[in-house]
Amino acid sequence: MLENVNYLIRPEKEEERARLKAEQEKLGVLQMKIKEHNVPVLVLFEGWGSSGKGTLIGEVIHNIDPRFFKVATFTDRTEEEKRYPFLHRYFATIPEAGKFRFLDSGWMDEVTRGAMNGTLEPDEYKKHVDSIRRFERSLTDNGYVVIKFFLHISEKEQKKRLDALEDSKDTKWRVSKFDRFQNKNYDKCAKIYEQYFEDTFFPAAPWYIIDAKSKKWAELQILETMNQAIETALQNASLSVPIPQNMFPLAKTEKLADIPLEGKELTEEEYREKLDSLQAELRELHNRLYRKRIPVIIAYEGWDAAGKGGNIKRITESLDPRGYEVHPIASPEPHEKARHFLWRFWTRMPKTGHIAIFDRTWYGRVMVERLEGFCSENDWKRAYNEINEFEKELHDGGAVIIKFWVQIDKDTQLARFTDRQNTPEKQWKITDEDWRNREKWDLYEEAINEMIAKTSTVYAPWHILESVDKKYARIKALSIVVEELKKVL
Q1: Distance CA 489, CA 319 (A)
Q2: Which of 245, 268, 436, 467 falls 20 to 30 Å from 392 in CA-CA distance?
């Protein structure tokens, strides 16, 4: 691709100046339109060392209200960042709806740099590329405009710029060892870039190769491309996105109605004996998890009043409080609702050696959001695959994923609702929304059955906790957590 770039013909200076002014003004107008239509725009700047990424970002953002954009720069991962999944820091920086986010290098630079200096093995390169393809596609499917620029300069031009920077004591610091490595190994690096473009090019987020020898000409190319991409996105905003087929192996599941609840109970004596034993074992496993730096995600979903809170409490009682966090998930806040629905979960993922417990999860997309009309049909139908990809990314990053559905029958729920309503110290637990949701029991059960069937993957299967007897459910959950942690350890 780089060897055979068919550059646009650069116009004469007067025409270039006029077109540049027109595109600058157009970007200011389009900025108001993306704000009005709540369209988020992510612009990735990649390129050769000294190709002018920072300078060109600075020129572009002059045309945008500073309240509606942010710029992020990615460098080598810190030791803290290395303890999170590969996509964590990139997903965390995606823009809110109606705003821009400009990235001065990003996931391409990290992956290609690793391939160039030999720190990224071929199988890891492929794994990261697969993650990137899913990441970018998921963003565009959810309404993001993703624009990817690569600033291209020749080997000779790069050397000239690096030499000029090093000639001044005020700019010498801007030339890194890697910049010099790139220039000395220009052809090798160009082949790695070309392979990456081929691996990550798709129509919804194509690569744009920018002739960056001249700053003004590069700026014009960038602005014309950006404006056209934004205009196209605004025109296509109402179109439905194709629903991808599931690519991941699924575990065998049962419908909720076929899961027997009778006889799943424990005496108080059996419960206490098993509880003490399992909690002691989990306490020891947590120490080993921390030492071996294995992240753990425990996700709870279930019927209202099924006993999720008590179940979570029995697990956390055996954990070191410095090594876990419980995330109670409610309706998204405005800044969360303005981003990809998985953003608020990506930003809550545990680092290595830690445990994150979710009381309600990302599965709200295919349950409450589906049934209450908080997202479109196309949104929730796509979400099954997006969730499977999300969990696969966590699994591939070394995380243990344990998902519980806490199951009770309708009569048990009614008895617990009534008890809560009639007991003053429990009344805070019952809301009008709980009663409204109960009226939709059959619709929820249908959605839950579909959710479990489509997202119980072999790497993140669902576990059903029969919770008519809460003691039984607590012991079963502890047993599963202990067993899964023993497997990975």
Answers
A1: 17
A2: 467
Within 8 A by CB and 6+ apart from 163, the residues are none
pLDDT, tens digit (0-9, with 9 covering 90-100), for 440-451 = 999 999 999 999
Domains 13-236 and 256-488 share a fold: yes
φ/ψ of residue 201, rounded to 5: -95, 125
Global pTM reads 0.94
8-state DSSP, 202: B
- Kindly report, residue by residue over 258-282, the tens digit of the pLDDT: 999 999 999 999 999 999 999 999 9
Q: Long-range contact list for 267-271, CB < 8 A, 24+ apart?
A: 268/471, 271/471, 271/474, 271/475
Q: How is domain 256-488 classified at the architecture level of CATH?
A: 3-Layer(aba) Sandwich (3.40)
* Per-residue pLDDT tens over the stretch 204-232: 999 999 999 999 999 999 999 999 999 99
Domain-wise residue ranges, the chain: 13-236, 256-488
Give the pLDDT mean for 48-75: 96
Categorise residue 302: left if φ over 0, alpha if ψ from -120 to 50, beta otherwise: left
Q: What CATH number matches the domain at 13-236, 2.120.10.30, 3.30.499.10, 3.40.640.10, 3.40.50.300?
A: 3.40.50.300
Other CB atoms within 10 A of residue 454 CB: 19
CA dist list (Å): 271 to 30, 305, 317, 349, 478: 63, 20, 15, 32, 12
Centre a 10 Å sphere on the Cβ of residue 123 and count the other Cβ atoms it contains: 8
